Amino acid sequence: MALSKNTPITVLEGKLQAYSLYQAIHAYEGSLIFKRSDGYASNVAGGNVFLGHAYAEANNASGGDGALEVFVRTGNYFAKAAVASLAITDLGSPVYASDDGTLVLTAAGNSRVGRVAKFISTGIGIVEFCPITKVDGTPGAHIADAKVNYTTLDLDTEAEIISAFNTTNGKINTLLSELEAFGVLLTS
């Protein structure tokens, strides 16, 4: 259910970052905050990239784009949370937000926010929140694929060797980008 009051969360770790809040948004303490396609922060999920939880209330209900900043808990962190239909078999499953206060296990139309780190009881668990991940939370398709002649020593010309190096470098760069998107590596 969408939040209508401050709802503090108990956090085990994390850090803060300020983001420009979109116009007419009232973000309550504990609201899930997302990055809109125009770059502004909002409390609307709907496939937007997850930024983190609002650290404090930020009421930009009567302000324009960026008139106010919202402080958001970022970096990976763990918090106890209600997750609709959570069962013990969901350990490790992706967690999504359908609005600024509702966590679900369904990807369609929602924003990925993390994964189930621990089951506590039906509908309650510890979620590892992973801000600023790709919307679908999956790595790009076929990152490791390479042409057959690159792996069977069938490179006959200098141009084929250069092409093989360029292809390999492209695959490595894609892999590094994916690791950065998932927070495994720092952005270069």
Task: Please give a handful of descriptors for the protein shown.
188 residues, alpha+beta, five-stranded antiparallel beta sheet
Reading the helices and strands in chain order gives: EEEEEEEEEEEEHH
Mean pLDDT across all residues, rounded? 83
Dominant shape: globular
**Helix vs. strand class:** alpha+beta
The share of residues in extended strands comes to: 25-35%
Please count the beta strands (DSSP E, at least 2 residues each): 12
Description:
The structure is a single chain. Strands 1-7-5-3-4 form a five-stranded antiparallel sheet, with no helix packed on it. The chain has helices spanning 148-151, 158-181; strands at 15-20, 25-27, 32-35, 41-42, 49-54, 58-60, 69-74, 77-82, 94-97, 103-104, 111-121, 124-129. By secondary structure, it is an alpha+beta fold. Residues 133-144 have low confidence and may be disordered. Helices cover 15% and strands 31% of the residues. It is globular, with a radius of gyration of 20 Å.
What layout of secondary structure does this protein have?
Layout lengths: L14 E6 L4 E3 L4 E4 L5 E2 L6 E6 L3 E3 L8 E6 L2 E6 L11 E4 L5 E2 L6 E11 L2 E6 L18 H4 L6 H24 L7
